[in-house]
Structure formats: structure tokens, C-alpha cells
Amino acid sequence: ERTQIGIVGAGPAGLMLSHLLDRAGIDSVVIDLRSRTEIEHTHRAGILEQGSVDLLVDTGVSERVHRDGYRHDGIELAFGGGGHRIDFRGLAGASTQLYPQTDVFIDLADARARDGGDVRFEVTDVSVDDLTTDGPVLRFTDAAGVAREVRTDFLVGADGSRSLCRHRVPDSECTQYFREYPFAWFGILTEAPPSAPELIYNHSPHGFALISQRTETLQRMYFQCDPAENVDDWSDDRIWDQLQTRLGANGYALKEGPITSKTVLPFRSFVQEPMHFGRMALAGDAAHTVPPTGAKGLNLALSDVRVLAEELERAVRAGDAAPLATYSERAVARVWKAQHFSYWMTTMLHTLPDATPFDTRRQEGELASVTGSTAGSTYLAEAYTGWPGAR
Ligand code: DHB
């Protein structure tokens, strides 16, 4: 078999790339180890930057994002006994859209099916080879058990944070940047009405909590926990007690309901540079991971592939790998801005297990500086909504 671009990973990054390439008249094969149903049921973040919404709508992937999503014009930062609103519209002239990653995935998978895209789920034995030749090869066993070999012009690793493609880049050819955090998030879904009109990022002496939403009847909430925490140790009562205590410290009361999902989410910052090797490019979580505070992961992945589609088009037309280096340079600039923003939101809002009284008071000073200053709030609003001026 032969295709122009072989893509490993059928998450939002891989599928959006395949869609954008198709619109440029370039064919691709996308493979994934997981089934479509499995990906559809993996809960991830729920906030889209305005540029991500525009990409989905303007390229014909989703009309649903406006119909089934909710526009948010700001967030609440809660600390020191009260809430402080950050007005995205007023400060940055932009909004975000509450629209879960699972729905983005469904829209993309439907769009690829509608347009005759070649997406193969549930493959096994994936390998990528000949990366430094003119014809890198993608090998796998398809869902029917048939061994396949696909010759390509270029390969893309969009295969998530445990990327198999990334591991094919020799150590001598890249630099990896890491940061670990001494906490995790306990994430829940609850069948309850919204507790507030907008998201609440809640800093408290009992630890951080984030009150997000899904629909009128389903809510998403998170609270800072120990990375070793086991969900089986957490009854609904114990979870509500934690959430109510943390939010209560700032004067909020949450509407409770049955908890239908409980997971512990890891916290890491990671970047591998450059985001290419030979005729292979890396995109999304395969190249970088951000901690979840600020919901940058999916947005970064979409912004990577928007740039990658342009540079791959040049690379295919010229039969040359040089545009992959340009892709990496263009993408990495935004990656580090998002790394800083995610790190900053995380460290500003969470409670360190070994925090001294100085650390705690300094953190409150930082939150007061941001919310009390138009300049500080504007930085937060611009970064959260995706640096609107930069588009
Ligand atoms: C959600 C997740 C985030 O990490 C965030 O910063 C905001 C919202 C969510 O899942 O809704």
C-alpha cells in the first residue's frame, strides 16, 4: 500500500490533520490501537479556545460546537474568601467554548467517515521505519488480523503522551524537558445542575478545586489530591465533603448529585524538541504534555496540526523534508507560551504539600496582584482564550 502521509494516532490531532490534508488534496492513512468507542469514552478536558472553535467550524468539521457547546465569556478565580471574575470579552475581546474533547473527537471521526477518509481503528503491532529515507514506512496488523505495510512520503506521530513514534527519535537528535508536580487531580462527573454560570478555579487552604460543567444536567469537577490516591477509597460523601469544604472557604455552595465517574489525572510538563526527525513529525501530546490547569492540551494539539498541515503541503509539493523544521519552529513558540501558562496557573492555584506560611501568603499576594490589575487580568484572559491577537 501507499499513501502520502501516514498518521499514527486517531485522536483529535491525527484526525484533524488528516481532515486538513484532505482539503489540500493530500491523502493519508490514520491508524490507532484503540477502538472508536474506547476513544469516545475517554473523558478529557472541555474548554476550546476561540481559534479551536473557528478551526472546527471554518473547515467544515462541526456545526454542533455552537449548538451543543456553551460560550463562556469569563472565569471566576476564587481565593481569600471570595470570587474574582476575569472578564475575557472585556479584557481580551474573546471567549472560550465549553465543548468536551469527546465531542470534538466524534465530530472529527464523523467528518472523516463522511469524506471517505482512511481511518483504521483497533490495529496492533505498530511500527514506523526508514524515517531518514525518502519513503518512511508504517507497519501494523489491521483489525481483521492482516499484516499491512504502507509506504509514505512523510509520517506523523500524533499518538499521545506515551507515543511510540517519539521513542524512535535518537537521544542525540533531540532534547527533552520535564517537570513533575507533587499532586494530581481527582476528576468526577456528577448528575447535577450547574453550581455557577462560569468555571470556578478555587484556591483554598484545603487545596485547589475546579468546578467545570458539561450540560444542564451533568457537571465536571476536579480537586487536587495525592498522585497515589486510589479512587476506590473515595465514596461520594467523602468527595462532596472535600469539594464543599474547599469551595465553602470562598463562599460557594455546590449542587450535589450522584457521581458517575471517578479518575485520578497525572500532572506533568513535558516538551521534546525539535518536533521532527527525518521525515517524521510529532504533534500534540506526542511532542508535549501540559498539566491540565487552563485546559491547553487539546488546543495546543489543534494548533500544532493547523501549522503542520501547511508545512506538510509544502513538503509534499517540494519532495523535501525542510518544511518539517519550519513546522517545529513555528509550533514550538506557542508550545512554550502554553507551557508557561499551564505551569503558572498550576503553581499559582495549587497548595504545595510542603508549603511554608511564606509560600501561602505569597501565593495570595500573587492572586490579588492578578485579579486587582487590569494588566495582570488581561494577560490571563489573553492566554486562556488562546492569544487572540496572535492569530
Ligand atoms: C476542564 C478541564 C480543565 O483542565 C480546565 O482548566 C477547565 C475545564 C474541563 O474538563 O471541563
Automatic annotation (TrEMBL):
<dbReference type="GO" id="GO:0016709">
    <property type="term" value="F:oxidoreductase activity, acting on paired donors, with incorporation or reduction of molecular oxygen, NAD(P)H as one donor, and incorporation of one atom of oxygen"/>
</dbReference>
<feature type="domain" description="FAD-binding">
    <location>
        <begin position="2"/>
        <end position="341"/>
    </location>
</feature>
<dbReference type="GO" id="GO:0071949">
    <property type="term" value="F:FAD binding"/>
</dbReference>
<keyword id="KW-0285">Flavoprotein</keyword>
<protein>
    <submittedName>
        <fullName>4-hydroxybenzoate 3-monooxygenase</fullName>
    </submittedName>
</protein>
<dbReference type="InterPro" id="IPR050641">
    <property type="entry name" value="RIFMO-like"/>
</dbReference>
<dbReference type="Pfam" id="PF01494">
    <property type="entry name" value="FAD_binding_3"/>
</dbReference>
<dbReference type="InterPro" id="IPR002938">
    <property type="entry name" value="FAD-bd"/>
</dbReference>
<dbReference type="InterPro" id="IPR036188">
    <property type="entry name" value="FAD/NAD-bd_sf"/>
</dbReference>
<keyword id="KW-0274">FAD</keyword>
